[in-house]
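DATA SHEET
Item: assembly model
Revision: 1
Owner: S.N.
Input lines:
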Amino acid sequence: MQVDGKHYRSIWFDDDSATVRIIDQRWLPHRFLIVELTSRKSFCDAIRDMWVRGAPLIGAAAAYGVAAEMQNDASDSALDEVCNELQQTRPTAVNLVWALNHMRQLLQGLPEQQRAAIAMKRAHEICDEDVECNRQIGLNGLQIIKNIAENKDVGQPVNILTHCNAGWLATVDWGTATSPIYHAAQADIRVHVWVDETRPRNQGAQLTAWEMDSHGISHQLIVDNAGGHLMQHGDVDLVIVGTDRTAANGDVCNKIGTYLKALAAKDNEIPFYVALPSPTIDWNITNGIAEIPIEERDGQEVTHVWGKLEDGNLASVQISPDGTAAGNPAFDVTPGRLVTGLITERGVAPATSEGLAAMFPKFSG
Amino acid sequence: MQVDGKHYRSIWFDDDSATVRIIDQRWLPHRFLIVELTSRKSFCDAIRDMWVRGAPLIGAAAAYGVAAEMQNDASDSALDEVCNELQQTRPTAVNLVWALNHMRQLLQGLPEQQRAAIAMKRAHEICDEDVECNRQIGLNGLQIIKNIAENKDVGQPVNILTHCNAGWLATVDWGTATSPIYHAAQADIRVHVWVDETRPRNQGAQLTAWEMDSHGISHQLIVDNAGGHLMQHGDVDLVIVGTDRTAANGDVCNKIGTYLKALAAKDNEIPFYVALPSPTIDWNITNGIAEIPIEERDGQEVTHVWGKLEDGNLASVQISPDGTAAGNPAFDVTPGRLVTGLITERGVAPATSEGLAAMFPKFSG
């Protein structure tokens, strides 16, 4: 999407320099840094140390990492090594595993001299496929926003609340939860976005607010506590969030706090939608709350907050007493009964076993 | 309550120096500073600039402020001036108005030479009355905790979630929501407290976590997003929060985010109690959500977070892009239907018009 009037993807191939470039997201929103990835090490660092994050973007970066390695050394051993090294950067990332297996299978049967070109072509395609998937999600979500806009008074924006960053920075472009928003803006529908800051890591404040600001979409940052009050008072027309993993029964695992917003939406009869590319549906899980394991992360994410000091330097401040123990579950599961619909690239499915099975009959067997 | 093994109130008269002392709460949890208040100006500063906060504590500080002035100058004009000046420090604080009107009425009919002694005696009594009220709240809440403890496996703590700081730092001693917790600890009932950090001002992280740590009560800090997930997984037995204002129908106005926790408690069939001294009941308001005006505070509270840098200095960091607009409603209203009971100094009342009227027949008109 746009940054200061110029279109960016979160990862791209720069034709002039013939290198892969990314936005080093560690410094957002305070620094907008573009980094060239060339060596195997630079790709590994970028994924491991979260210069790039978000499942689709990690997959794309891994594919480019393999392709870049093939330009340097297209031997079987180099292919093995680069795949193994990249896989270890974030061993639990499903898209990373998928992209690496995919590239390895594609390349290992080919003569060495063809590998570099085919790998790079496939990496480009993986990016384009992600963009197209998110574009379809956006078009499907756009219908929902359009319907709401038609029932608003003239000149009144559609107020959309979102949690965390399921934006273009987490994908290659468009994002998932944000794609309907960008499409609405493109269709000249007035939208206003309530951006949950999303403690503890503040992806909303750091990334979603930056996306909205950079693309020129009306928005306000709020604390995660505020959404319920806004919904009670008619200030939210629609909630759209992303998901890290969707169970086959429509339960949705997303950033911690999503469940609370879904409860408030239900209590105030406000539509609550989850945007997702279908590969994030885990067909093996039939009860999200009982079966999806929730990562418990370092308490320091809770006790410390990172940002920009008055002098422009970046630093963390400790908000609690020395030595305070913190609990830090990173995700929660929103039961499908609280979800109005799942916005996928194929259409909007009910968040039920039947709804998902009907939309994806091939996978749900 | 205890700080490093020594008992403190949040405001007290020091016999040796014959002065009023407070904990300057602006620096907690990073600095524990005790300040002597002597001049009229120092009392005004302490209330206006939030060295002390919390309705009961503000009332007590105002009463002491009048008493201290009477020691310097007990004339009618001095009484007028100190009341007027103190009232302007936080014009919307109900307890402040109450305490000043109370002191003025008590003193204005008295001969000047009696005023200082009577004013000081009354200020002491106001403090003691607050402590006794909170003690009764604690004893009533203790029964609830005891009942839960009896149904837990041996050795398992009662897990209590609280939001914001309705602790002894907001009152003279015991606190309201924390009083049952301190009483349970005193009765050797094992408790573990989940402390919501309470964005945007982080009163949970700064004050409640400090109280729990200082008194030696097992606790963990969590982000405001985490409570729903913990409730889904059986890690919360009970929620107790305070309130700034309770409507006659049992709707409860408290720090922003309380409503979301009440929804999650309801969804998981976990008891959700609100602790309050009966003077915070507003008998004129019969529909809390519709009638209680919600203060919208400065967006900088959302975009900036204060804490301790690695070098020990205190500073704020900006978490969002430059110029991000923020929405900052300071409170929300939890409908009485989500509240299991109101823990008052008289007993536990249902959060309904009938429940409150039955417990306080004199006030409910």
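QC remark: The mean pLDDT of chain B is 96.
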